Amino acid sequence: MSTGRKSVVLLPCSGIGKVYGAVARETAYEVVERVRPGVTALTCLPLLVVEDAEALSLVKGNPVIAIDGCQKECANKSLEAHGVQAARHLHAIDFYKSHKDLKPEGVAELNETGRRLAALAAEEIASLVDECLAKGGAPC
Amino acid sequence: MLNIAVMKVGVVSCSGEELPGGTVSRLACRQVLDGLRPHETVTICLPLFIAGGEEERRFAATFPTITVDGCEKRCAQRGTEKLSGKPAKSLVVTEILAQRGLALPTRRRNLDEGDRAGVLAVAEEIAKAVDEVLGS
Question: I need a surface site. Which of A97, A106, B46, B103 has the fewest CB within 10 A?
Answer without folding.
Answer: A97
